[in-house]
Design brief:
homotetramer; about 210 residues; alpha+beta; 9-stranded mixed β-sheet; about 20% strand; globular
Chain lengths: ~210, ~210, ~210, ~210
């Protein structure tokens, strides 16, 4: 394990613990990744079926662009590795996070017929990279859930090309994906989008 | 206290602390157990009337298949020990967890007339052992609450036989039981089912 | 400071920290006490205007039956000391806790016209001392709020005499009082009643 | 870095961590300041774009009355520094806190047409400096959000002059500002107002 991989893995484990505490990664759900090197591509990926509140840095796996394991101490990479890899390629992301929260689950279903959620007029939008004003309108696409990962990766690739400025997307009744140039930015985006979804959901209750 | 019992008790105390922090074991409610040995059966059981946020490993009791104390440093095993033992026998479970959350309490009453809650179409269902797709339909049976533990154990035994693939059940206005091959799996199941109940409850609010 | 007072103060500070973390003692609200000796009466009382998340054992004050300071390192005892003392006398309580939670605030207003809230049919009721079945009906009286502490203490004294088996009461748009033979039991009662109020409040939303 | 600045910065970092844990400073949102000296004015200000859950004391910046950096180890002060400075001048505040919570976001929009929220009849109001009774009526002004900070600072200056006894204000769909003579009082005010907004918001749901 190179120092670099170890540092990245330590960062991912710390973020996992924090997001699990907020209830966004319950029951081994969700997954996390960060780029280790670009040429050839290697990313550190959270293993499948692990309690994210207990994730240890040495459990992170290193996978290549085809989701084949190229490093780490064993285990099975998350089923959704292909989605992470696709986001890394399409967006040049340095880190990708995927959460299962109550509000992202509910809203991904409630707005599914619209194909996405338009979020606008909130100061919190300025936490998304490149957004300078609360008057920004963010479109958060919603993609139908599927267990066919290669097909879903294609769908997501096409969706990311169609919505080139989106900072995240929802899988219906499944969860939220967001990403960033690095892990700190990806975590910031997740917190921002989760906050906005909760604000929208609770506003509908009133 | 054998090393094995000590390890099991340490694990149960750690899980108890975490679930109490989430508000799922308030006021000494709920209880936890894990199998110590199968032949003859011994399980480590949380004592009655103890603050689960402060539970210490040495407070766990070892009980036999008749809920008689066979080890530990004293105390009274939970009144619901017979339910734990029944689940262990019927399901071959290695650990059983019982939580009292706001949402499991509310939904156990709201759906009581239906005899259970059908949960389907959520990715989170894949966190239940053996479930491979979000298209799975999980039936979470609801059993009328009772203070007659031997009778309730019989009712639950019959219910578990009727619903052979259920991963948990609700006692009406009382709480959730779930289990797993080991403590980690039981904790995963509790987190998954609690999440799904909250998602269903909050969806009804909108 | 006797060892005994120091132990009691340490226990109160730990409970204060936990309840503050749950959001039940925000903004220096709420207060805590425990009996140091009965003859003549001395209780350890939390000081006025202190952040309960930061409360240190040495900040606890010792007061007599007239709420006069008889020990501790200075500070002003909580304005509501007279209420604590009254509860100690009427109920023989060993500890008294007073929380300001969102749900106790809302329900204390919503049910004010009824003079109280009848809570029945919940397993959680068994967490209240002496309650053996979920079929128990607990009456949680609601008293109109006031800044006249001597008068309010009289009102509460009369109310406690009228409702001899109540385990707590609400001050309207103010908060919850509960108590116990000792601090652990008082904390258990607070957790139980807060849970039940939240369950009732959220059930009304559905 | 003088001892004094270091102490102030340590205090701000600790408060930031606590408020982030409550979900009131997600995604690098919100900011915090405290007066270092009055003549000439210097305040310790949180830097822009930093995760408040990870804020370290050495990241705080010292700025003058024109929001120019006069101390600290680099970084960019928050865009909203001009608002903090204006509050310090108009109110003589020793510390200013700005949070983005779900409930302050929702209510700042829901009551925008009224120009503010009247909060009265809650015991929690007594946590606001100078308030002696729950019968107090607090007016929490709501100001339209803007990205033009010099103009917004003027608007807020005028608003503070119009509402001389207000303990805080809302920026529409943006967040809450409150302050105090010192950091502890500012934190108290934030907790009190956040609590009251949540109580009002949830009451409307029922």
């Amino acid at each position: 394990m190179s120092d670099s991989f170890e540092e990245i893995a330590t960062g991912l484990a710390a973020v996992a613990k924090g997001l699990h505490a907020r209830g966004w990664l319950l029951g081994t759900s969700g997954n996390l990744s960060a780029v280790v090197q670009r040429e050839p591509l290697q990313i550190a990926m959270s293993p499948s079926g692990v309690d994210k509140g207990e994730l240890r840095p040495e459990q992170l796996l290193s996978i290549d662009e085809h989701a084949r394991i190229v490093g780490g101490q064993g285990g099975k990479p998350s089923d959704e590795s292909l989605l992470h890899l696709r986001i890394v390629k399409e967006r040049g992301a340095g880190a990708v996070l995927h959460t299962h929260s109550i509000w992202n689950t509910i809203l991904s279903d409630l707005y599914a017929a619209d194909g996405g959620i338009k979020i606008e007029g909130y100061e919190m939008l300025k936490g998304l990279q490149g957004v300078r004003t609360h008057q920004h309108a963010e479109w958060l696409p919603i993609v139908e859930n599927s267990q066919d990962m290669p097909a879903l990766a294609e769908t997501i690739g096409a969706m990311l090309n169609e919505h080139k400025v989106a900072h995240g997307f929802l899988l219906r009744r499944h969860g939220l994906y967001s990403w960033g140039e690095n892990l700190a930015q990806a975590k910031r985006h997740i917190e921002i989008i989760e906050f906005l979804l909760e604000a929208i959901g609770r506003t509908r209750n009133i």
